[in-house]
Amino acid sequence: MNATLVVTVAGLVSVGTYLVTARSLSRIILGFSMLGHGAVLALLSAGGPAGETPLADRSSPEEMSNPLPQALSLTAIVISFGLTLFLLALARRQNALSGDDLVEDDLEDRRVALLANEESPEPVSEDAA
Amino acid sequence: MIASDTTPSPAGRAVFGLAALPLAGLTVWATALLAGDGSATFSVTWVADLDLVIAFHIGPMAALLTVIVAGIGALVMVYSAGYFSKDAEGVVRFAVTLLAFGLAMIGLVWADSVWTLFLFWELTSITSFLLVGFRNRRAEARAAARRAFMITAAGGLALLAGLVILVDGTGTDSLQSLPQLEGSEAGIAAVLVMIAAATKSAQVPFHVWLPGAMAAPTPVSAYLHSATMVKAGVILVAITGPAFTDVAVWKNLGLALGGASMLWGAIGALRHVDGKQILAWGTVSQLGLMIVLLSLGEPKATFAALSIIVAHAAFKAALFMVVGEVDVRAGTRDIRELDGLARSMPIAFAVAAVSGASMAGVPPLLGFMAKEAAIEAGLKSKGFGAVAVTALIVVGSVLTAAYTLRFLIGMFGGRSDTPTEVSARRWPMTMPAVALTVLSLGGYVAAGTVTTLVTRAAGTLDPAAAEFALLRWPGFTVAFGLSAGIVVVGAALGLVLAREASSPPAAIGAGLVDRGIDEVVVTARRVTAQVQHGSLPVYLVVVMGVATLAVAPFWFAVDLDVLYRWDTPVQPILGLAVVVAAIVTARIDSRLGAALGLGGLGIGVAGLFATYGAPDLVITQLLVETVVVVGFVIGLGHLTRRFPWADRRWLVTRVVISVATGVSVAVALVASRSQPNGTPPREALVTEAVQTGGGNNVVNVILTDARGLDTLGEIVVLAVVAIGVVALGAAGGRRRIA
Amino acid sequence: MITPRSPIVALGVGVAAPPAVLVAIYLFFAGHNQPGGGFAAGLVLGALVALRAIAGRRAPATSTTLLWIGAGLAAGVAVLPVAFGDAVLDQRVVDVTVPLLGKVKSGTALVFDAGVAAIVVGLVMAVLDGLGISRIADPSPESETAAKVEGGS
After folding, report:
1. Do A1 and B620 touch (CB under 8 A)?
2. Which one of A129, B274, B629, C81 has the fewest beta carbons within 10 angstroms of its own beta carbon?
């Protein structure tokens, strides 16, 4: 397994994770892109060592690099492309609504949290009427 | 407390009649099966891959119990038709749930595999929860239902654990031929199964749910106490008993729980003033007796226990039906308020008197013969047990006779010249109780037939138990002497305590359980409030942190020998460039700069693809990167040039978690290659691509041919993204959330 | 100064367009035997459309139309074999000869790839609409409204 690629993957995933935990949606998009790159490189490195281009008429099966991870990677690239574009549209809409692109706290979740302040869940044990 | 309109509902009658039909049919079928000494076996495959089969086997034991469960079920349905008034709500819901409850119980007695047993065990817990909480607008009923469910469901968990150990130890999940369980795990399994039985059969200290279950309509109480639910625990002890006969803790725990329940239940019955409560506590006591007898594991005791199950089903159902009738017609069931009902409700009184006598063990009734057998069993038990068990049974029976008399006098006795007013008779309520009373009498007359049926059933549990008989007249034996003494002493005690108009004891145990459950709910909410923070970054940090921990085992699978430095020396340069670009992109303040940084990073990644012999990836990556950068520039063009407000509080946490995540992914990656997992099927892929796909570019042929459906899904995703982007863009400018 | 409306941009777009289209066509047909394919071809065309949009030129078709065409082609090729009793997405290998490239890919995969390409171009156009390219190309308020209406249709 290619150590260089593994280190690169680690670096991309680290920075990507750092960015997706940010408040600004555009930074989250950058982070997602990096995680996508990391995933594709991880797929390639897991598929074995590098080789010739997998073209059946140019190189023999023994010399070529594993074509399967490449096919999977193409799909991965396309899907992260779509995701990035969608997130961009979300960021733009968030900006139109609130003037910035910060991810706000979920109000419903905050409301759930407030329930904890109520003393008793339901007055079953006291009210026997 | 009961609806003011006292005429029964005609619609209700139709529903209950309909519900009684399948139960009546099952009764007839099971009676025929038992009379013919036959058996039936059938099964339904549930999950074939797991060998999970819902298996039923109806031998004599199951047939006898089916007669009880289905027969009393049918009678209870008839009774319900009279119980509910015209304006009662949810009659159909009640009938359906009650029928489901009865069928679940029948499934439980039919079960041939431990898993089927467990399934129906839980079903009875769930349906009884619905029945106890039937009057769901009353806080009292809801609390009682919750308490009953929590206790029996906890028992269900114990049962599951116990059964898993049992199956693991014996190697079979069939209940027909349970081998002896040996070894250290036998004790654990015995304790778990016994606890499960104790929760279901309301044994001390798990009995606290049963008195509360009185919040249910009376038909439920009559059914739950006589034939179903609480008998499930007893049946469990009966059918799993053969696996534990040599396990000391099984016997000792059973004797301790059963004995404590016998005495404490009877004492409870003597202290309460609500007719239903008296009977409920009496049930705790009677079940204790059954558990004591069954855990002795001796043939005579097993026979006696089954006889008591039969007798108890008949008299307890009848007694509950009478209390329900009194409740409906007189408006109360408090023995301090009822007066002179023996005269105004003669049939109910007769039923109660005969059934009560059967409960107290007075001849000539079924209950007498059963109790006689129990005392005999106690006397014949081995060693130290003979004295202790006999003493226990005698004391318990004295108390039983006492609370029976107190109950009869309290409910029906006359105290003044102004008897309680009662409304018109409801025949559907009267007749089932009469029928059951006739059984208590008839069982005595036809002692031979009853003996045949009970010995057949007992024979399935213990072949040696088949030789005993129920005797109408045992002669002047020690047991008979004890029986007579019990009735006399008990009656005297009952007379003394009958007019003791004490106020009922507080339900301390139930209160404790309720407070415990409340505390759990409150704690759960506090935890939720802490975890359900509402902040996306916090969630992500938690998710990544957990993922990092989940990867931890991979650290041990890493074999560094599979690593090599690089394929070409260009790779480290490109890799370094990519990581540096990533860090710069993360640190940069300007949005445009970040977008360009991301573009540069993408070009570096494309370079790495090139070193891997992946030109398709290079082309795609470069084009994608171009479009994404254009998208960033246009899309974020409206935003401020610089990133707003960066939250520095979490910085250290974020950095730590991020690095941990990156390292974990790398470790998982190396670990995945550290195990030998074959070579890539390049040859096959190439052949397939050229011959089937008709193309030389193996990667693209895989995409359009072998993984064509994936690619189709992929473009659907793109189309959805396109629609989403257009929709978000269209809505975005109007400051409207639709 | 180079603004979106400047003649330099217009000229650049004009010069870049024909080669870009050629590259796209090459990638599209090469895909089965050489690197390339419908997705790459679609992205090249999409980039061209984006460039034209920045220069203020309208695309010849709306994104919705292209999405429909693409989805129809791909789904049609996927489902059609079922009518002949074959599995979904079963391929019919028909050699197609194209001048300069020679023998290229098989018949039905070509149609499938055309669907992919159409969807990718449609996606890029949708993104341009959705992210508000018209404001960059023409920052007047009227065109913004126009873009909104178009985007919402």
Report:
1. no
2. A129
**A-B contacts (CB, under 8 Å):** 357
Average pLDDT over residues B255-277: 92
B646 found inside a domain: yes
| Per-residue model confidence (pLDDT) at position A125 | 43
Region C66-91: mean pLDDT is 78
CB half-sphere exposure, B471, CA atoms < 13 A: 14
Query: Is residue C117 one of the residues assigned to a domain?
Result: yes
Tell me whether residue C1 is in a domain: no
pLDDT of B718 > 50? The answer is yes
Name chain B's partners: 3 or more CB pairs within 8 A. A, C
Residue B370 has pLDDT above 50, yes or no: yes
Task: Assess whether the previous peptide bond of B205 is cis (omega < 30° from 0).
Answer: yes
In this structure, which long-range contacts are made by residues B277-280, counting pairs with CB atoms below 8 Å and at least 24 apart in sequence? B277/B211, B277/B214, B277/B504, B278/B335, B278/B403, B278/B406, B278/B407, B278/B410, B279/B221, B279/B225, B279/B316, B279/B319, B279/B320, B279/B323, B279/B407, B280/B210, B280/B211, B280/B213, B280/B214, B280/B221, B280/B225
Percent with pLDDT over 70 in chain B = 94
Please indicate, yes or no, whether residues B427 and B322 belong to a single structural domain of this protein: yes
Highest mean pLDDT among B120-124, B587-591, C25-29: B120-124
- Say if residue B734 is in the same domain as residue B632: no
User: Of B501, B524, B543, at which residue does a domain stop?
Assistant: B501
Q: Domain residues for C86? A: 7-152
List chain A residues with CB under 8 Å of B612: 44, 50, 65, 70
Q: Which domains are delineated in chain A?
A: 3-54+67-117 (1.10.287.3510)
Residue C145 pLDDT: 42
Question: Which of B658, B674, B705 should be substituted to probe chain A, the one whose Cβ sees the most A Cβ atoms within 10 Å?
Answer: B658
B316 and B393 together in one domain = yes
Average pLDDT over residues C69-84: 81
CB A56 within 8 A of CB B623: no
What's the predicted TM-score (pTM) here?
A: 0.68
Of B640, B663, B678, the position where a domain reaches its end is: B678
CA distances from B576 to A27, B492, B666 (A): 22, 98, 16
Burial code (b: 16+ CB inside 10 Å, e: under 16) for B575-587 equals bebbbebbbbbbe
Distance from CA of B627 to the nearest CA of C (A): 6
pLDDT band at C140, cuts 50/70/90?
Answer: very low
Q: Which residues of C touch B704 (CB under 8 A)?
A: 32, 37, 91, 109, 112-113
CA atoms within 13 A on the CB side of B135: 19
Judge if B382 and B350 occupy the same domain.
yes
Query: Looking at residue B323, what is its pLDDT?
Result: 93
Residues B388 and B355 in one domain: yes
Q: Check whether residue B733 and residue B671 sit in a common domain.
A: no
Do B446 and B580 reside in the same domain of the chain?
no
Task: Look at residue C2 and tell me if it is in a domain.
Answer: no
**C positions 69-128 inside 8 Å of A (CB):** 123, 127
Q: In whole angstroms, give the CA distance from residue A54 to residue B525.
A: 57
The complex scores an ipTM of 0.87
Shortest CA gap C113–chain B (Å): 8
How many domains would you assign to chain B? 3
List chain A residues with CB under 8 Å of B138. 129
Chains that touch A (3 or more CB pairs under 8 A): B, C
Residue of C nearest to B727 (CA): C152
Let me know whether B311 and B435 are in one domain: yes
Residue C44 lies in a domain: yes
Q: Is B669 on the interface with A (CB under 8 A)?
A: yes
A76 interfacial to chain B (CB closer than 8 Å): no
User: For residue B50, which amino acid is it?
Assistant: L
Of A115-129, B293-307, B676-690, give the range with the top mean pLDDT: B293-307
Which domain range does residue B700 map to? 682-738
How far B337 CA lies from chain A's nearest CA (Å)? 20
Q: Do C132 and B708 touch (CB under 8 A)?
A: no
